[in-house]
Amino acid sequence: MSLPTGKNLARPRFGHSQDVFQLHEVIEFSLFLGGKRLLFLALNEIRHALLRRGGRLEVSDRFWGGAGRDKVDDLQVNRARRAHLVFRIQRRLEAVRILGIESSCDETAAAVVEDGSVILSSVVASQISTHARYGGVVPELASREHLRTIVPVVRLALEQSSTRLEDLGAIAVTQGPGLVGSLLVGITYAKALALVRRLPMIAVNHIEGHIHAVVSQNPVELPALALVVSGGHTHLYEVRENFVYRLLGKTRDDAAGEAFDKVAKLLGFSYPGGPVIDMLAPHGDPHAVPFTLAKMKGNTLDFSFSGLKTAVLRWSEARDLSAEVAARRELLRRNSHPSVAEWLAVTPRETLDTLASFQHTVIRELLRRAVKAAEEIGARSLVISGGVACNAGLRIAAAATRLPYPIFFPTPGLSTDNAAMIAAAAFPKFARGEFADSTLRAQANLALA
Ligand code: KG4
Ligand code: ZN
């Protein structure tokens, strides 16, 4: 048994308000799905279903023997020329539910999203406590945890959204980039579900997911500039109509989130480092340590954070921080989630200043290149997404920049890894009929553009 593939599937582009529906595509699609559910619906019914969603129907000359598309209303439809529409498709015109599965790194996540934007459920099982004692993600442990949690996480996402597998239009899964062993768990499970339930499967790039975490929830005008900034990425993309992407710049060494994590580890703070540095930075002076901004040869839209990380290392080596670092590690041994007050009690002023200055420098780097890139492409919106987009300092700094276009951030729940963003990113692919088949492979270094 094979899964429906994009090859033999026509591509009705339904679901988006501006979409134009080609009748022959609807028919081919319905014939492809076939089976008992095949219904005969009059053209008007299809047209009304589309109109209710703000879509419209174009009738191709191929079917109507030269009848003009503007004459749709006048067409007398005989049985032979009726639109054949599968009941499932009609239901999908009402609402399409996609189950998203994400397992690229250290979060096992599943979500059900309707029509690419209405999040009916979003379940995230974090492995942070497993990896925290190692100060970073341990790939073997991550795969094992995914295996343990994938079934209950998917079940919970379905339950919380009152969705049965048969209510789904498709299953979306992260193909990459990420840890190959982790990706494999999600992909294998998605394949099994899709095969057994005869559901189409959609492969999603994790980075595209981060972009859709914002695009699906906000009135983002295209072209947009997307800054994806997480533990694994610091990338600038141009986002054009139909979600066509162009890579404009990326980090040449560490990702911004990775720099947060490494600096935190170096100074004895908890993993991941971003949230704790974010929490403590307001207690220090961001101008106290004049870290220099990275100068890039070649593509000036590229980033580099390893110099800054090394500068923090040199700063700490120049002082004897062993007592305060030991005190923080001891605090963490007693309490895995210290409060701000508890951290402040074991963090002298000078270290707080360094954290604030470090964060301030990262934010300046991110914003100056994002703004420059946005200018270059004539962006109508700026999208900032990924785990580091949670950063309060970054959000405040972005709000303070006076730009001729709006800046959109994800909600905190959609900033770090989740499956709702995967299901949201899958929706335009679903509408275009871009399905994966059972040969889908995990790709650790999958590029978006
Ligand atoms: O998107 P994400 O959950 O996973 C990846 O795809 O990498 O991002 C995780 C990263 C970590 O490096 C973490 O330190 C960082 O996002 N992060 C933050 C904040 N919250 C998470 N960085 C700065 N400020 C935060 N508030
Ligand atoms: Zn991510």
Structure description:
- With 449 residues, the chain is of the alpha/beta class.
- It has 3 domains: 20-94, no CATH class; 97-213 and 418-432, ATPase, nucleotide binding domain (Nucleotidyltransferase, domain 5), CATH 3.30.420; 222-409, ATPase, nucleotide binding domain (Nucleotidyltransferase, domain 5).
- It is built from 17 helices and 14 strands.
- The protein has helices spanning 23-33, 43-52, 61-64, 87-94, 128-132, 139-160, 180-197, 206-215, 256-266, 273-280, 306-317, 322-334, 340-345, 349-377, 392-400, 412-415, 420-432; strands spanning 20-22, 38-41, 56-58, 83-86, 97-102, 107-114, 118-126, 170-176, 201-205, 224-229, 234-240, 244-250, 381-385, 407-408.
- The strands form 4 sheets. Strands 7-6-5-8-9 form a 5-stranded mixed sheet, with helices on both faces.
- Strand 11 (234-240) and strand 12 form a beta hairpin.
- The longest helix is centred in the C-terminal third of the chain and has 29 residues, at 349-377.
- The two termini are 32 Å apart.
- Mean pLDDT is 84; it is low at 1-22, 28-42 and 59-93.
- The protein binds 5'-O-[(R)-(carboxyoxy)(hydroxy)phosphoryl]adenosine and zinc ion.
- Zinc ion binds at residues 206, 210, 230, 386, 417.
- 5'-O-[(R)-(carboxyoxy)(hydroxy)phosphoryl]adenosine is lined by residues 105, 230-232, 257-258, 260-261, 272-275, 278, 386-388, 390-391, 416-417.
